From TrEMBL:
It holds the Pfam family SBP_bac_3. Keywords: Signal. The lineage of its organism: Bacteria, Bacillati, Actinomycetota, Actinomycetes, Micromonosporales. SMART domains: PBPb (SM00062). This is Polar amino acid transport system substrate-binding protein. InterPro entries: Solute-binding_3/MltF_N. Coiled coil: none annotated. It comes from the Bacteria. Residues 45-246 form the Solute-binding protein family 3/N-terminal domain.
């Protein structure tokens, strides 16, 4: 992995990337002038912090980043004739690096309600995705969730959301659409799995990206790219990401 300040580069193993991000500033002119990110990225390097949030983003052990937003970042980079450098880490570490202008962008299924407004500027939401209760053929849609057995992927927030609705969660390794009971899935998976909505929603997320504070020109460029995407286009990317993961 390459950690870069404008004009200076060095290599660090993936395991040390969090430390590198925090120490990278020590060898660069600091602080970088506000308002220059767009000019720096165009024809140069786009430094992207990424947190694990399948199917939006996935980070392999070797540092390779895939997922729907990974593809979108690459599209943005191509549009600006830039090369992407990925920096995996936790949201808190990445947002601190973004605040210090070590990064140009942070992605990873971020929600507009993310508590990072002191560290970063969030773009306007570019897509709203819902997590819903759906049913396969032959299963009746429940009139209410209270007391209803509903399958959801084990270890996810959906389990807690179902309990909040007084439903009875049935943890499964993965929702396949073949379960003989209602299931919780992202709305983008309904057609792929042959499910139909039940009218019950367990979560809604307005998805955003994060950019450095004060970089208005850069934020406008990123938002222009994101807001040109159609809802269907993002759904298709999520479906593709799910299929790629299943094939691994």
């Amino acid at each position: 992995m390459v950690t870069a300040c404008r004009g200076r580069t060095w290599r660090a193993p993936l395991a040390l990337v969090g430390v590198v991000l925090l120490l990278a500033v020590s060898g660069c002119r600091w602080p970088r002038d506000t308002g220059t990110t767009l000019d720096d990225v165009r024809g140069g390097v786009l430094r992207v912090g990424v947190s694990e949030a399948p199917p939006w983003t996935r980070v392999a052990d070797d540092g390779m980043v895939t997922g729907a937003e990974a593809r979108l970042v690459q599209r943005l980079a191509d549009r600006l004739d830039a090369r992407v450098e990925w920096y995996p880490g936790s949201e808190s570490t990445l947002m601190a690096a973004l605040k210090d202008r070590v990064l140009d962008l942070v992605v990873g299924g971020l929600d507009a309600k993310a508590p990072w407004t002191r560290e970063a500027s969030l773009t306007r939401p570019y897509v709203t995705m819902r997590t819903v209760v759906a049913v396969p053929d032959g299963v009746a849609a429940p009139a209410e969730l209270a007391g209803q057995r509903v399958a959801a992927t084990a270890g996810t927030a959906e389990i807690a959301a179902l309990r909040g609705e007084d439903a009875v969660p049935v943890p499964v390794p993965e929702v396949t659409g073949r379960e003989p009971l209602p299931v919780v899935v992202g709305q983008w998976r309904l057609a792929e799995l042959g499910l139909r909505g039940s009218g019950h929603e367990v979560a809604k997320h307005d998805h955003v990206w994060a950019v450095p504070l004060g970089e208005n020109g850069w934020q406008v460029e990123v938002e222009r790219f994101l807001l040109a995407l159609s809802h269907r286009e993002v759904e298709d990317l999520l479906v593709d990401a799910e299929r790629e993961e299943a094939a691994v």
